[in-house]
Amino acid sequence: MPQILVRLIEHLQADDLGMPELAxxxxxxxxxxxxxxxxxxxxxxxRHHRNVNLEQSLVALGTDMIKTLVISDSVFQTFNNFPxxxxxxxxxxxxxxxxxxxxxxxxxxxxxxxxxxxAYLAGLLHNVGRLALLATAPKEYxxxxxxxxxxxxxxVEQRTLQITHAEAGAWLIERWQLDSFLADAVLYHHExxxxxxxxxxxxxxxxxxxxxxxxxxxxxxxxxxxxLCGIDGEQAARMLEGAARQVxxxxxxxxxxxxxxxxxxxxxxxxxxxxxxxxxxxxxxxxNMVLVSEVGQSFARQQGESGLLEAMTRSARILFDFGNAxxxxxxxTGHALVGAPTQGSQRIAEFAVPLAKGxxxxxxxxERRPAFIGRDGESLGLxxxxxxxxxxxxxxxxxxxxxxxxxxxxLIGGIAAWxxxxxxxxxxxxxxxxxxxxxxxxxxxxxxxxxRRQLAHVAEEYREASRRVVHEVNNPxxxxxxxxxxxxxxxxxxxxxxxxxxxLNEEIDRVGQLVSSLAELKPSEAGPRPTDVAxxxxxxxxxxxxxxxxxxxxxxxxxxHDEATRIEGDADVLKQILVNLxxxxxxxxxxxxxRVDIVNRGHVNRERQLxxxxxxxxxxxxxxxxxxxxxxxxVKSTKDGAHHGLGLSIVHSLVKKLGGHIACRxxxxxxxxEILLPAWSGASTATGTGLSGPVALPxxxxxxx
Length: 705
Fold this sequence. Notes:
Blueprint: H1 3-11, H2 19-26, H3 30-40, H4 54-61, H5 63-79, H6 91-110, H7 116-124, H8 128-136, H9 138-141, H10 151-161, H11 165-174, H12 182-187, H13 201-214, H14 219-228, H15 233-254, H16 277-300, H17 305-320, E1 324-330, E2 336-340, E3 352-354, H18 360-367, E4 371-374, H19 382-391, E5 395-403, E6 406-415, H20 420-425, H21 427-492, H22 498-516, E7 530-532, H23 533-544, E8 554-559, E9 566-568, H24 571-589, E10 594-606, E11 609-618, H25 625-629, H26 647-657, E12 661-667, E13 670-678, E14 695-697, H27 699-703
Parallel strand pairs: 8-10
Antiparallel strand pairs: 1-2, 1-6, 2-3, 4-5, 5-6, 7-9, 8-14, 10-11, 11-13, 12-13
Helix pairs in contact: 3-4, 5-7, 6-7, 6-13, 6-15, 7-13, 8-11, 13-14, 16-17, 16-21, 17-21, 21-22, 23-24, 24-26
C-alpha cells in the first residue's frame, strides 16, 4: 500500500489534522501533488486566479475532497498494477467500486458516522478480493471476474478456488494491520441483512452501499439493507441518484475513463462441471509428483546446510501456506531432536525435544508419520506449547524427514486452526516433500562426512610423512655427529679435513632436502636423469668410513659390474636406500660381527623391461617368519626409539619411487635384499658378464682415517 495512503488512514480519525499537515503529507508524492493542483485549477474550482501554491489549492478543494481524491488515486495506483490487470477490462469494476465508495460516504454522513473517509475507503475496496483472485488464478477466475456480484458468485468461488472474493479482500486488508473494522466490512458485505443487525456501523454501511450499487433493482434486498442503517427507501433512491453524478465527477478528476463501463456484460457466475473424484485425485497426485520433483531439484542445488534448511522452510511455507516453519534435526546420539538455526529464527538452536519422553513431536519422528497438533490436543506437552508460542500460531504440522529407514528430523510449520483440514488432505504430499528434503539433507551430511574423512586422511598422510622424514633425518644426523668427532681428533692432530668437510656439507644439504620435502605439494617436473651406481656406493662407503658406527668385527665388501653401471633415477634416493640397508645389516650382525656385501649383478630383463640388479646382503642370523611376512610394512620394531620399524617400509617406497622392485631372501646363512632398478635407457644394452673382483674393506680400515 502506498505510504501516503497509510499515513492518510492514520489521520482519518484525527480531529486536529490541519491544512499545513495535510499539505506536507501530500507534498511527499509528486504525482499526487500534480493531480490535486490540476483539479484545484480546473473550471469546477477556479475562481478569480490560478492556485499555484499547494496549500492554496488544498484550501480551494476542501478537506473532504482532498481526502477523497488522495484515497481514490492511491487505491487506483496500487491495484491497477495487479498482475493480469492490463489484459482485463476494469472499467465496470472501477465504476462499481467508485459508486459503492460514494454511496458509503453519503450513508455515513446521513447516519452521522464520524469517519466519512473510512466509509469511502471501505466502499472503494469492498470488492478488491476479486482483483486478488484474478492475479492469483487468472485461468480459473478470468470468466467470473466480470460475473454478476451476488451470492451465487461467492458459492462458485468457494467451490472452484476454496475462497470467496470477500474472504480474499479481507485477508489482503488484514495484512495492512489497520486499527479499523474495514477488513470486517469487506468480509461481510455479502452476508444476509438479518445477520448484521447488531454489527458495527461500518459493516452495515458497506452492506447497504453494496446492495444499492450492485442490486438496486432488488427492492426486498434494498429495503432490508436500508433498515440496517435506519434509512427509508426514498432516501436510498436519492443517494443512488446523486451517486451517479459524483462518480462521473470523481472519475474526471482522477483521469479515469469509465466510458462504456455499463456495456461490459455481467453474466451469471460459471462453475465447470465437477470432475470425477477418481480423476480429480489422480490429477492432484500427478501435480504433487511434479511439485515434489521440482522441490527435490531445488534442494539439490543448494550450497551448504544453512542454504538447504532455508530452502526447506521457504518451500514449506509456500506449498502448505505455513505462517512460519522451523527444522529440528536428530542429534549425533539419536536421543533427541535439536533446533537447526535459520535466517528467521536463531533462538530455535537452543531448543531440544527428547525422543524418549514422548509427546506428539517425538511420536511423529519415531513413527515417521505427519502429525497435526492443536492447542486443545490431548497430547500437548511442554515442547509443543513452546513451539506454538515460538511460531505465534494455534496449530502445528509436524512433517518427518525420512530417508530410507532413518528419520533425520522433523519440519514443523505453524498454521491457523481452520487450515488443519486442508493440510490433512495433503498428508501424502507432505510425506513426499519430507522424503525429498531428507534425501537432500542426507546427501549433504554424507558429503560433509566425506570431506571430513578426506581431511583426516590427508592429516594422517602428513603425520606419516613427518614420521618418515624424522626417521630419514636421523641417518645423516648420525653421520654428521660421527664425523664431528673425527674432525675433533684430526684438528687436534692438525691433519687435513677437507674430505670430512665435504661429506658434512653433503649430509647437511640432504637434511635440508628431507625437511623441505614436507612442503612439496607438486611432484618434480624434471625429466629422468642417469645415476652412476658405483659412485653412489662409493659415497655410502665414505659415509660409514672413519666413524665409530661400524664395529671392528664387521667387514664391508663391494663388487661392481664393469659395464652395467647407470640407472634411471635420482642419486639421492638411491643413496637413502643403501644407507638404510647397510645400516640395518650392520645392526643385524651385532657384536658377533660378520660380513656385509654390496654387489652389482648387472642387467636383468623382467617383463620386457631392462633393470640393473643391486644386492645388499649380510651373513647374520636371518629374519624370523613373522618379520619376513610384514617386512615392508611399518611395524613396531624391537629397536629402541620412537621411529624405528619404519626403515624397510621407507626403502620399499623409495624403490617404488624409482620405478623398481625389491625382494628379500633370508635364512640361517643370512639376509639379502635384491633390488631391480630401471637401467638408464641411453646405456649399452650389453649385459656383460665380467665382474670386477670383490673389494673387501676391513673393519680396521673403516674405523680410522
